[in-house]
Amino acid sequence: MIDLGISKLALIGVVALIVIGPEKLPRVARTVGALLGKAQRYVADVKSEVSRSMELEELKKMKDSVESAARDVESSVQSGASDFEKSWSDATAGMEGANAGYDQGSHHDALGSIGSPVHPVYKHPKKNWRVKQKAMPQWYKARAGVRTRTQSGAARVARFRPRSSSAPR
Question: Disordered: where is this region (predicted)?
């Protein structure tokens, strides 16, 4: 690249002053500065586009590696599940034979099946969201004098002000 020092820039400035003239030099300098700014912005845009494309390629490679790892995990889980199902069926096959000779009257659950223990179903207390526990009925609020609607101070004064009889006696 061109090495521009202070001495070379001064020489270029003196030559431009002589060739262009002092009247047109500021306008030419502004035009040259604007063109250099546009060129720098163009170069920066090209650099950013190149870096974005490189990042996109890296992301695509990372995505492919993650997808391949996910496929490997999925295949290992499926093979493990099939192994588990096979061992489970082998283990339960031996138990079915043992239950065939089991005494019929010794252990029955609520449904009458043999050999399965009875476990109560857990029910969390106060889990019925349809019933409000702390709801107060409207008739009780009216009887007890609980305010259900808010009023402004002026409305309250007007409501409870004693009425003067405007009828003559």
Answer: 143-169
Percent of the chain residues topping a pLDDT of 70? 75
Residue 135: partners with Cβ closer than 8 Å, 6 or more residues away: none
Measured CA to CA, the distance from residue 70 to residue 62 in angstroms comes to: 12
Enter the DSSP assignment of 121. Answer: P
Measured distance CA(72)–CA(86) in Å, rounded = 21
Separation CA 100–CA 36 (nearest Å): 94
Rounded to an integer, what distance in angstroms lies between the CA atom of residue 123 and that of residue 37? 74
Residues whose CB is less than 8 angstroms from the CB of residue 99 and which lie 6 or more positions away in sequence, other chains included: 114, 115
pTM: 0.35
